[in-house]
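Incident review: delayed structure delivery

Summary: a single-chain prediction request sat in the queue longer than the usual turnaround. Root cause was a stuck worker, restarted by the on-call engineer. No data loss occurred. The affected request and its eventual output are reproduced below so the record is complete for anyone auditing the incident later.

Affected input:
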Amino acid sequence: MQGNEFIEVETNVRLHIRDWGQGKTIVFIPGWPLSHEMYEYQFTQLPKQGYRCVGITLRGFGKSSKPWGEYTYDVFADDVKKVLEALDLRDVTLAGFSMGGAIALRYMACHKGERVSKLALFGAAAPSFIKRHGFRYGLEPAAVNGFIESCYADRAKLNEDFGKIFFRSENAVSLKLGEWFHNMGMEASPHATAACLIALRDTDLRGDMAKVNVPTLILHATQDKICLFQLAEAMAAGIKGAKLIGFENSGHALFYEEKEKFNTELTNFVG
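Output delivered after worker restart:
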């Protein structure tokens, strides 16, 4: 199944899939509130180097179906499993950015790493996006509550404000590239956008880390203002044998701002 595809994961719920290249398979899960289009600068390069790149746009986002209903990490992990089964993918590197990294971690715990031989986490919103009892890193819960309120009051402004802290600085990328990311976020379902903020706030993945039993790569920017670098350090400590590589010249969007280093570290890891 090469090219752009839609895969049905339940009745009337179809996920938009990009499947380019041949070779060792990397399955990319995007972050909130983006689609697999965010990985453009991986998909245009890695297939030329002999990798098969499969991007999954989560339900509620991009061109995937946008049902009313639950948007939890468990639902997303089940959807990922159904895509891997539908494409009969095995021995994949499961790769996730931000909330997508948290979903990848939940998949490894819920589905015992089925069909996955390596895990790659980029700026992941794990093990906890917020500070909570026994975990002093992450954002303040009140800040995420503010994001949820903003989503219902002026979602375009919320996306604009996130765009200002998404990169290392407000002028780190071209105006047009910033607009592209903004428009990608606005394509998301407003219901899914808010529901995923609730999932980010309420989900604690600290217990999932010990269930990972495959080689794990953590790529994380030291200047990340959304998922703080301490989260990466906590994952590196909690996931057995995990390798953490810091990115010094990017913000949350390390996959774009340092794309050459990002692609090199990822392909070195996949092998």
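Verification: Strands lie at 3-10, 13-20, 24-29, 51-56, 92-97, 116-122, 216-221, 243-247.
Action items: add queue-age alerting; document worker restart procedure.
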